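=== Structure Prediction Worksheet ===
Name of assembly: unnamed complex
Input type: mixed (protein and possibly other molecules)
Chain count: two
Listed entries:
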Amino acid sequence: MKRFTAMLLLAVGLLLPGMALLAAPEREPAGEPDAATEAEAEVMRTPRFEAVRVYVDVGRTPLAAYQFQLHAARGEARVVGVESGEHDAFRQPPFYDRRAVERGRSDRVIVAAYAEPTVAAAPAAQADADAGSDGLPTGRVRVATVHMLVTGAADTEYAIELQAASNVEGTKFKPTITIEKGTADEPSMPKRD
Amino acid sequence: MSRRCRSAINLLLAAAIAAPLVWMTTGCTPTGSHSSTHHASYSKSGESPAKAVDDAATASPVDELWVIARPDGLAPHPAGDAAPAAQEDDATPGTGALMTTMPGEEKRIAVPLKHTRVDASISAYIATVDVQQQFHNPFDAKIEAVYVFPLPQNSAVNEFVMTIGDRKIRGIIREREEAEQIYNEAKHQGYVASLLTQQRPNVFTQKVANIEPGKAIDINIRYYNTLRYEDGWYEFVFPMVIGPRYNPPGSTDGIGAVGRGGHGLSGQTTEVQYLKPTERSGHDIALTLDIDAGVSIEAIESVNHRITRRALDETRMRVAIAEDDTLPNKDFVLRYRVAGETIKTNVLTHRDERGGYFTLVLYPPKDLDRVARSPMEMVFVIDCSGSMNGKPIAQAKDAVVHALKQLQPGDTFQVIRFSNDASQFGPRPVPATRRNVRDAVSYVKRLDGHGGTQMIEGVKAALDFPHTPDRFRFVSFMTDGYIGNDRQIIGEVRHRVRDSRVFSFGVGSSPNRYLMNRMAKAGRGAAAYLALNDDGGAVMDAFFQRISHPALTDIELDFGDANVRDLYPRQIPDLFVGRPVVLTGRFEGELDRAIRITGRAGGRTINIVLPPDQRGEREPHPALASVWARAKIADLYDQLQWDPDEALVEAIKQTALRYQLMSEFTAFVAVDSLTRTAGEFGTTVGVPVPVPEGVKYETTVQEN
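=== Predicted Assembly ===
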């Protein structure tokens, strides 16, 4: 009995400090605050704005309509604007349906648009998008930009799912969808036209 | 709608069903709507009391010279043509402004709002209106522009797009507090952002932050609303200016009227800045309206503006404000009459993933014409406040004098005036004898406009005295409605109306139509408008013609097997001769059964059966869903006036968010996260507006 009690006391004596170590926050050497952690915490608390550019690569099939769902996989993001694409056919800003998820702090947004075909040639300023038939884009084209207000993670990550894409006949197909994050340039001095 | 468009939409809808999704507007403009037209009930064509105005005005170019003025040395200017702008207003930021002045002209004031463009179209009795506001920064430092403006009180605002150069960003509808937080954060961080909020159903505030010098930002708003129909005439209204409101002492949630740069003077949370009569801003307005009446358009007239018009065919017309009449100081009111003595009760339907929506326009049966007139007790309530001074009160007095002379033996009447207080012609209603009418006419002619607008006193005086049971009491308010406590007034009318009927006559070029319509609704009466150019006598003749025939009261509708719910207005108004009742509701399944209407008139029960009438291919009419949601929100607001329940507020929010509509608890916000400007967010510049035509600046606007 005495031996058992001693072993029990030893185990408790070992466990408790171990649990205390696990529970206690890491401590920096006395006198030196954790600058990196504090800075990161500040970034996480401060609301900031960024853009998510959405690209669809349709290959040679002219794109007539699309729908995708976007949400933040890491961090909290709220939609503050949905911008039109780069091709003339998608010049009007897309439509959206926004659903708040997870404590109402982050959005899951569905964005959709249909093209307004033009017979004019595609503008020379387009990057990868080529003018397809009926003035609809082919190749890789930015179809929308979703503007976000983010908090939480210092580096927000997004998840996107292409829900539908169709050609001018209404036939569904499966292009590739990708995203790129963007932020404003460094604040510019006021410019005059 | 193109086949390609339809194919793309079908795909999106199919995807929407597969992925749970609240239906979104696809944006295709419908070329028609599914309409069930029932057999003829009643119509009476008549002449509109408004004077016909139909001029094809020729625009004359105005030469302008832009001069940049700086405080540390004025830029030289061509002799005799222009003068540099003087910097005297604390609200004008920076060190200079782009301005124009011409010798002998009114002083031009630099303002951030350059131009408003309105493109409207009418299909059946639903208007789709696109409003584009062009903001620019004429100053040397970046600014935030703030513009308080009106829209129709039944407008369903559901689209908001910010345009920067060739980039278009669609704004997001959010709960108001959240939208304001987002906007303020963006503003303080230097981002270009915009925010649209609603203070009243007919008063909105647009803010645009971080407009850099010389840059322009456009805001596009889209709304739907149903048109008024009366005595054979449809009426389309685009309000342009908010009249200076009187706010009872101690109130802070009203709408203040201050001089240019006088922000904060009124103590109200919302303020409108007004230009002096000798000032003008250069902000002008362009408006085009495409009418597709579906039947021949017989006559058309503009009440306040000169217009150009072009008939596309018998049933379609394009109207525009003449280029020399673009000062936005009076509402645009267009009336048009369509062909046919017999107007048919009409049902429009629309269905999407959220369910079915319908709008029913109910016309009074012709038989009501033959029922004899009963003795009436007429109470005339005349607004004698300062804002009515001049032409408005002259109009109101003329109309009341004309009405007094229409009274018949057996009628009784009372005349009440109100401004800071209320007083009346006699201690109680008096018989309409020749002598009493003569004395009352003298009393009315001696009235003038000055003082505040304690309309509550007028309401109490008009509704609180005992009602004579053998007479139908009609209470007519003659007012411009320029008050800040409109919701309190509406609540008081509802509380005190009992068996009376309230008719509200909105007087002037820009009356408070929200107040007029809501008072009439609360009082189970009707609203009418007396513009400065209208013939008051003719308006009163039409009014008496309407009330002389008893309305169909206690109306009930039976939709048979159809599953109909959420019908608004919940209390179906009385049906007066010449004025239809518009109802909106939801349905499940099909709405193809006969509709049975029951009501009472002249002491007997009237039954009307409306058989179904299927016609043509169904086309989506997405406005109907917004129109229904807007009606639901209005109903919830009405309940909120006498029952301040948080659950009602939440219901308004959820409805507005689900249908992406503006309300007092939701707002549109848009942020361009790719454009960030340097420095502090700049000076806030309110956009000053002219006082409505006919209203005196000196008696209505607060200055330093």
